[in-house]
Amino acid sequence: MNKNYKSAISKIEDKLYSPTEAIKLLKEISYEKFDPSFMISMNLNLNTKHADQQLRGSVILPHGTGVSKKVLVIAEGENADLAKQAGADHVGGPEMLEKIQKENWFDFDVIVTSPSFMPKFGKYGKLLGTKKLMPNPKLGTVSEDIKKAVENVKKGQIEYKTDSEANININFGKKSFTDEQLVENYTEMFNLIHGLKPAKVKGKYIKTVTLSTTMSPGIKIQFDN
């Protein structure tokens, strides 16, 4: 534990903070020499061994995340043209999948395609799946509306997913954002997860909420279940 981290911990009181208080304090104690990301970590009362208690999807936060993503679109014809208009970084047909496999080419963060092209992905499932790059309708990366799908990613669309311990960890902005922007992004994310409580879950659904920056200690948040 370095001196900066110890100093940051010493300024956090043993209490639950409001999101606004936590964001202000994190900006004060953040010691990164770059523009760090703000993170929300939620521990949920879910049994992720059951499919109906595994949360996964995508969301566009009001102010984005401050992180730009490179988009590869697998499409041809009109969809390829629409993808380019929407700002896709790379556009091509199935030969792009061959390029990924043969050249170990991964100069992108997200793949977008249409339902009709999904059968082409079959033999690349393991390769893309291990890198969490497989397009998925739940994430908005398999869509009939290619233009909108690309635009959403470029606006800062992010994926959320429960891990095996029922945690969700999401980047919801940058230190350079205003406090108000960070609060609005946090509120959007919290309300989304809060509204996804499975019907079978009884009692307290959200166990804990913690905010942090890339390298800071976490601050526990007060919230209503």
Helix/strand order: HHEEEHEHEHHEEHEE
Class inferred from helices and paired strands: alpha/beta
Q: How large a portion of the residues is in β-strands, by DSSP E? A: 15-25%
Give the low-confidence spans: none
Report the CATH topology name of the largest domain. Answer: Ribulose 1,5 Bisphosphate Carboxylase/Oxygenase
What would you give as the CATH superfamily of the largest domain?
Ribosomal protein L1/L10, rRNA-binding domain
Named at the architecture level, the CATH assignment of the largest domain is 2-Layer Sandwich
Largest beta-sheet characterization: 4 strands, antiparallel
Radius of gyration: 20 Å
Number of domains: 2
Give the strand tally: 9
Q: Give me the side-by-side strand order of the main sheet.
A: 7-1-8-9
Name the average pLDDT: 95
- Give the fraction of residues assigned to helices: 25-40%
Q: What's the CATH first level of the largest domain?
A: Alpha Beta
Alpha-carbon distance between the two ends = 34 Å
By DSSP (H or I, 4+ residues per run), the number of helices equals 7
What is the 3D form?
Answer: globular
Short note summarizing the structure:
By secondary structure, this protein is an alpha/beta fold. 30% of the residues lie in helices and 20% in strands.
Describe the structure.
By secondary structure, this protein is of the alpha/beta class. The chain folds into two domains: 113 residues, Ribosomal protein L1/L10, rRNA-binding domain (Ribulose 1,5 Bisphosphate Carboxylase/Oxygenase, 2-Layer Sandwich), CATH 3.30.190; 84 residues, Rossmann fold, CATH 3.40.50. Helix content is 30%, strand content 20%. The chain has seven helices and nine strands. Strands 7-1-8-9 form a four-stranded antiparallel beta sheet, with helices on one face. A hairpin with a 5-residue loop joins strand 8 and strand 9. Helix 2 crosses helix 7. The two termini are 34 Å apart. The mean pLDDT is 95.
